[in-house]
Target: dipeptidase E
Amino acid sequence: MGTKERRLLLLSSSVVHGSEYLQHAADDINNFLKKYHVTRILFVPYALHDYDEYTNKVTSVFEKWGYKVNSIHTSKDPVQAVKQAETFYVGGGNTFQLLKALYDWNLIDPIRKSVLEEGVPYIGSSAGTNVATPSICTTNDMPIVYPPSFTALGLIPFNINPHYLDASPTTHMGETREQRIEQYHKIPGVPPVVGLREDCLLHIEGDKITLKGKSCVRIFSPGKNPEEHEAGSNLSFLLKTI
Model:
């Protein structure tokens, strides 16, 4: 297999206002998993401190949908757990903490190989979406720990800013999300950034990307004006950016 067989579902958030955990994306997640005949999910809880509590929360949802959940933190050999995984769900929390743990447990290359070479489905939410990209340089999170590198899994060739917020009238004079992304694009050679608003997700299958959810996304490319794309749009051009 190769990148033409990659199977990803990348959520901006696991919770949106007025909805319970993952409920806003329930149909998309279930359609995704059923398409690939998934019955078992390997959960990666490293983005939050209390792995057990986080696992219980995730398990209660996926078990209602008929899936068996195993958390990687309970495995004696996390690398072997990755190699045997039927699908991955990488949850949200702090992106720096998540990426550091992936490095600490030597999981970067095994996960990348499973997804890009063996076609193992990958679901990411928030921080789990951030680490699917080339780097975590466009996360919103505070650097509460220090990973050895900002280089992430590189399952796709562009960056994402989950929970993207548009500017609104305020007396606060700090940078907007758009301004921060523009600052990032002053660095030579960095990729486009998808501003993934709440209630948005990217369905990536091989060389095709479809925007799912109810919101538009804002795409930033170096040297170009930002572009808005509505739900249902084909965003496959992003896979040819590098």
